[in-house]
Amino acid sequence: MSSLYHPTRLPCGSRVLDLSRPHVMGILNVTPDSFSDGGRFNQHDAALRHAAEMVAAGATLIDIGGESTRPGARVVSPTEELERVAPVVEAIARELDVVISVDTSTPAVMRETARLGAGLINDVRSLQRDGALDAAVDTGLPVCLMHMRGEPGNMQDDPRYPDIIQEVLDFLGERIAVCEAVGIAREKIIVDPGFGFAKTQNHNLNLFRQMERLLELGCPMLVGVSRKSMVGRALGREVDERLYGSLALAALAVAKGASIIRVHDVAETVDVVQMIHAVESAKEEGRFA
Fold it and tell me: Which residues does the annotation mark as catalytic?
């Protein structure tokens, strides 16, 4: 294992992310079938408008996805995914001052969106799709590696692990080693525990409870639990009633060392993150006799 510390400066294409403080990543799904907001932002103008609203609310990254990865989601062709994502990446890169993350496992999408201004590759499959590793190397961009077993279509088919935190540590450690072997430096790697991906409710809760151990990997950590079923199951809430549970987990994730919180509700999460940062960075006043 590496040290518990990771670099605080992450070059993301034409921008640099300062990881000495936590950041909020806004979710922009340009798909018709995402679990929370499917179809709402798959038109170009609506997507750009929503991205601008999230940036105004304090998001420093926008994560654009053109293929739903919810349980049971259908696979889309590279052409279809690129047609959804590329125009939005190009428009945001032109109009907004924000790091663009592309939520993709597809080599062609990685290469083209990097050319158009993307600054981060966020891959739920950890660059295991054919050609993805080479494409990521070619872009020169930082990558986010996420834990998942199987594919979105079958990942929830009775997942079992003797020790969930060790499973995630071992998997991500192996993927980091593979990336380093082809020239992607550890300083350009982010890790994501993959909450809700090939995990039961008990897996999710135990992983969250112990997730500060992932800092042993020596990489910044991204956490995405916004509106997910782990919140719904714990609280008995439907998707549109999970804000407060999501905010609770965002606060806990920051306390446990997460550098990036991936969310739908940007303004509310930014308040949580900024308040925690204000407390943690406050200078101690001098003591007087």
Answer: 228, 262
